[in-house]
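[job 4471] stage=fold_predict status=RUNNING
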Amino acid sequence: MPSWVQDLVVCACYVDSFPVQSAAISALLDLIILNQSLQRYACQHVHIPSLVMGKLGLLQSA
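[job 4471] inference complete, writing structure tokens
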């Protein structure tokens, strides 16, 4: 995990300042949402090689 993400987690969990904690939590949630939307987009528009039952296959959108 990159050090800046670790710093965000530390700020979200251990800093005794509500504004800092809430900003760090908000940034982490934004990163999670962005990551999920990028994964959905990639699955719909990009052929991703993967292991399927021991054979190399391609994941394709339905």
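[job 4471] summary: The radius of gyration is 17 Å.
[job 4471] exit 0
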